[in-house]
Amino acid sequence: MGLIYALIASGLSLIFGLMEIVNFAHGEHLMLAMFTSFWLWALLGLDPIVSIPITILVLAFCGIITHYFLIRYILKAKMLVQICATFGLAIFIRSLAQYLWTPDFRNVSKPMLEGRIEIAGIFIGQPQFAAAIVCLFAFIGLYLFVTKTETGLALQATSQDRQAAEILGVPSNKMFALGWGLGLGCVAIAGSMMSSYFYIFPDVGINFSLFAFVAVALGGFGSILGCLYAGIIIGLVESLGGLLIDPSFKLLYVFAIYLLVVVFKPQGIFGRY
Amino acid sequence: MSDLKSAQAEPLFNSNKKMTYLVLGFFAFLILLPALGPTKFFLHLMIMIFMHAVISQSWNIIGGFSGQISLGHGAFFGIGAYATSFFYVEYGLTPWAGIVIGIIVCAIVAILIGIPMLRLSGHYFAIATLLVGISFQIIFQRWDFVGAASGLWVPLTSEDSLYAIQFHSSKVPYYYLFLIFFTIIFFITWVISRSKLGYRLRAVRDDAQAAQSLGIDVAKHKIIAFAISAMMMSPMGSLFAQYILIVDPDRMFNFEISIIALLITVLGGIGYVWGPLVGTLILIPLAEYARIFFGGTGGAVDLMVYGVVLMIICIFKPSGIISFLPNHILHREKMR
Amino acid sequence: MTILKVENLSKSFGGIHANQDISFEVQSGEILGVIGPNGAGKSTLFDLITGFTKPDKGSVIFEEKNIFGLRPDKISNLGVGRTFQKLKPFADQTLLENVMIGAFSKESNQKVARDKALEIIEFVQLLEKRHHYAKELSTGQRKRLELARALATDPKLLLMDEVTGGVDQKTIPGLVELVKKLRGRGVTVITIEHNINIIMDISDHVLALDQGKKIAFGIPKEIQNNQKVIDAYLGTIDAA
């Protein structure tokens, strides 16, 4: 699970680092991804794993629309306004989903990957395992992209100093759109993988949003590597906490970690802010 | 052009006779309203308006005056609700005392969580408050001491009772209760806005570093604002509990409360004394009527609308509807 | 009387030694100019003295009191005011409100604070603009706003960071006059300034920094002829 959080979180971190907007609607986009996978499965019989590319496209499309209608305007606004705006977006998407698809739980009943496999004496569900692997790869891919390719470096440049990057010929609007798209792409992959085994319902995004925020805060806003470590840590804490103490309080443990980190080391483990 | 002496001779505040009479007239009207024979629904509407106006004003203190975005304010509402109900159910203590207890508890909680959290910058703080809000709901859902998920069953009195703050024959007493609190809290807000505290809070909001260079203890002021805000929220929870007499975590620690407080204030005019009222007057009647017309699906639809409205306001008029008023009226009213 | 005594003040950020072993004294009622090329550590020095950054080592004694490591607001309340290089007005508030917030640091009564603010606004010659929002003011006016605001806290020592930076030529003499008049109000001034002519004109003493170290301290005439200072600036000093 930790790896999934990491992936989602890096999407968030990317967007923040780039545009200094915290996307409160991140989890909701995840939910959209999961629903997309679900409907593709329910209506077309496509297994979630197969439909990943389609999901990515769908989300990218949503992202573009969002950017065009909302994000563009709030880039220059005060932080308060940005928070409220993406928050509003989150609420809107969540309730729209609730309206269109009812609050019922759905799940994909016969995914391609089923059953458990055994690794080093621990039983892990196949879908979870696959999800973890895919997310890991996606993460590595993202990391390489951002640090090694030219576009990736351009992305980093824009996030560090927008004006300087522009002078050097990097178009910030495109970069923002790219960053946004990448961020959502991460979410799309994560969501698709999870729809193999997770329950799908409109409010599913909230928990993940929160975990993603915590992961980003832990790992540091703007640092992708940090997200990886943070995501894993959170995943561990969640599982261990659930195991050792009381499962229903899982969120609280994560919250406790958040508080501790944020109070004592505001930039997070690797962060820039 | 102007010289020092005449400038110093100017009155401290631009008080406008017209405005003062308008406000007084408004309150007089509110006091006399029940005598005009309104329907139960209308009374209910007014009560909801008062309540939401106060909730939003409470948010305004920390969000608008001090610039810290709290996304979990509903927690204080819930605490207030449980404070009155719990002590009444377990010990038979009059809810009046419960209200006071709720206020004190909220103040303490606000200070306790405020001390670590208010050191955080905007985004982190917002996320933290979100977590707090949800945490409270989770805690109360599992805490058997206060009835866990099924909540507290408040025994109904057979007749109207001032002691137990339960009125079954008519909504009018509730109306006046809420009106009183509404008046008090708005008055307090108005006073704060024009006071030294208000000035300093705005300084903290606008530029914390500059504020520090002027001798303002930023952390302390943020905590004060947070505590005041919490203390305003609490009585609303208490009164609401007395109004609907069903107290459970889903209703009282509902996330929607936090959202609405924020939405109304941003819609109406963040940082302005009358902003929350403007927002409430626009939103609540709409919400109540929507609930009638859309019936079952009303739940999701009104949230959708909230989300859209929030986004639209943020894009087009972030300072809220009230800023449509011409500047000289604004300046007077706001008296920043 | 020595109003400020700084000894061995040092601060490093990572590998960068922003300030290294800086020591100097400031006499009450004087104007001390601080010069140095960009990156010399001047603003960092201000941050260290006013508590916005905690020094690694050294001591800062203000009026016999040790203010090392204190919070900025505490230091301000003790009588040290400052303005910022990157202006920080309270943009959505009026000039009068801005200055009143400064006044509130010493006054509790609103009328008294307001009148005091007005008096200071008149001192900086912005009385007609007092109800204008800070964001409507020009750069030169904003500089005066910051000065007025800091003055309203009744500081005994005022640290001014780049008074004439970014201000057009014809406004500069006015600002310079203001700084000189501060002496008449009993305020000791330390000012960072890039414009060497101005520094030489108004300062009683000059502190020169380069790359985090103090390279010279003395009266303007000495500094002008100091070889190290000239080298640091690569000849941009005019003989007055």
Structure description:
The complex is a heterotrimer of chains A (273), B (336) and C (240). Helices cover 73% and strands 3% of the residues of chain A. With 273 residues, chain A is mainly α. Chain A has a domain at 2-106 and 126-201. The radius of gyration of chain A is 18 Å and the shape is globular. In chain A, 52% of the residues are buried. The model of chain A is unreliable at 268-273 (pLDDT under 50). In chain B, helix 12 runs parallel beside helix 14 (298-316). Chain B has a domain at 38-253. Chain C has a domain at 2-86 and 157-233: P-loop containing nucleotide triphosphate hydrolases (Rossmann fold). Helices cover 34% and strands 26% of the residues of chain C. The chains are: A mainly alpha (273), B mainly alpha (336), C alpha/beta (240). Chains in contact: A-B, B-C.
Layout of strands and helices, then pairs:
The complex is a heterotrimer of chains A (273), B (336) and C (240).
Chain A: H1 2-19, H2 26-44, H3 52-74, H4 79-101, E1 116-119, E2 122-125, H5 126-148, H6 150-160, H7 162-167, H8 172-194, H9 204-219, H10 224-244, H11 250-264
Antiparallel strand pairs in A: 1-2
Chain B: H1 4-9, H2 17-32, H3 40-65, H4 74-91, H5 95-117, H6 122-142, E1 152-153, H7 172-193, H8 196-206, H9 208-213, H10 218-244, E2 246-247, H11 249-252, H12 255-268, H13 275-294, H14 298-316, H15 327-334
Helix pairs in contact in B: 3-7, 3-10, 3-12, 3-13, 4-5, 4-10, 5-10, 7-10, 8-10, 12-13, 12-14, 13-14
Chain C: E1 2-13, E2 16-27, E3 31-35, H1 42-50, E4 57-62, E5 65-66, H2 72-78, E6 80-82, H3 95-103, H4 110-123, H5 139-151, E7 157-161, H6 172-182, E8 188-192, H7 196-202, E9 205-210, E10 213-218, H8 220-224, H9 227-233
Parallel strand pairs in C: 3-8, 3-9, 6-7, 7-8
Antiparallel strand pairs in C: 1-2, 1-4, 4-5, 9-10
Concise account of the structure shown:
The complex is a heterotrimer of chains A (273), B (336) and C (240). Chain A is mostly helical and 273 residues long.
* Multimer state: heterotrimer
Sequence of strands across the biggest β-sheet of chain C: 6-7-8-3-9-10
Helicity range of chain B:
over 70%
SSE run of chain C: EEEHEEHEHHHEHEHEEHH
CA gyration radius of chain C, whole angstroms: 18 Å
Number of helices, where a helix is a run of at least 4 consecutive DSSP H or I residues of chain C: 9
Distance between the termini of chain B: 25 Å
Structural class of chain C: alpha/beta
